[in-house]
Amino acid sequence: MLSIIIVNYNGLKFLLDCIASIEKYADVPYEIIVVDNASCDGSIELLKERYPQVRLIESDCNRGFSGGNNMGGRAAIGDLFLLLNNDTKLLTSLKPAVKRFEEDKRIGALGCRMYFNDCSFQDSMGFEHKPLRVVLTWTGLHRLTTSLLFREIDFDRARYEKVQSNVDWVSGAFLMTRKDLWNQLDGLDENYFMYVEDADYCKRVRDAGYRVVYTPEVEIIHLRGGGKVWGGETALLHQMESYIIYTRKFYGAASTFSLRLILSFIMEMRALAYWILSLFKGSTLLMEKRGAFLKAGLRLLTGGRNSSR
């Protein structure tokens, strides 16, 4: 059986479409577990009224993506887990993904092809979050070079056309894994509130001797960020914090210290660039980004943690 785990936080506007798509396309024995991270938008009431067959777990606080999925994993009864974002919709059957796990016991995690709501291409796999790669990615120089060292996300559309049997990580918006491996690895690392926890899990899958696979045989729509123009200050702060957690965990204190300093400088330079642009364009979005990047740079420099949890 496949246990589909959906973490929800004020996602009422997405849940109906997400669950309806599962019922239409799952095409395998499954259960749906929704872990609600203390929503206040009526999500819980909707689920109880419309979907009594869904196993609802109500958290007393917002435990983030990692904490929510771990709660779901502890309650799941399937031998395969599918972590699925609430802002997704299945477009195809899940059978091909399940079949790959059945036929290849060394697959530890699997991701799929993703599209935005307008059916345009969306990246969903990437490269190891080495400290140097993280720094170079945020310089923006990846636009000027084809070197993979400047990319933490795989933008090569040709690679998304066929199965990739050994990638570094796949997006947590759709991440299928084995229950026994999940339990062996103690699920997601709850030090991450949001972002990078998927790359962390996939690295531990690879370190345990399993492979991370991408398949185009399964397709979904993923709104990513709830369809917002950009994630906002809170998302940026969480992302920077997650980079630090990952680097400290896998690359040590010296690399973490260097990453803090260099990323802080890059964030401040970006804040300056947005401020200059705002002088000419008068955009409130540019000023919002300026403030967010300025705060991220200061947070990295001082070593503070994001309190927006």
Labels describing this entry:
nine-stranded mixed β-sheet, alpha/beta, 309 residues, two-stranded antiparallel sheet, globular
Low-confidence stretches: none
Instruction: Give the fraction of residues assigned to helices.
Output: 40-55%
Number of helices: 9
Order of helices and strands: EHEHEHEEHEEEHEEHHEHH
Beta-sheet strand percentage? 15-25%
Number of strands: 11
Mean pLDDT: 93
- Tertiary shape: globular
Structural class: alpha/beta
Biggest sheet: strands, sense, closure? 9 strands, mixed
Distance from first to last alpha carbon: 33 Å
Brief rundown of the structure:
With 309 residues, this protein is α/β, with parallel strands linked by helices.
Detailed description of the structure:
This protein has 309 residues and is α/β, with parallel strands linked by helices. It is 44% helix and 19% strand. It has helices spanning 12-25, 43-50, 64-75, 95-103, 131-139, 179-184, 197-207, 233-281, 284-302; strands spanning 2-8, 30-36, 55-58, 80-84, 88-90, 107-115, 121-122, 125-126, 169-170, 174-178, 211-222. The strands form 2 sheets. Strands 1, 2, 3, 4, 5, 6, 7, 10 and 11 form a 9-stranded mixed beta sheet that branches. Strand 2, helix 2 and strand 3 (55-58) form a beta-alpha-beta unit. Helix 5 runs parallel beside helix 8 and helix 8 (233-281) packs across helix 9 (284-302). The chain starts with a strand and ends in a 7-residue tail after the last helix. 43% of the residues are buried.
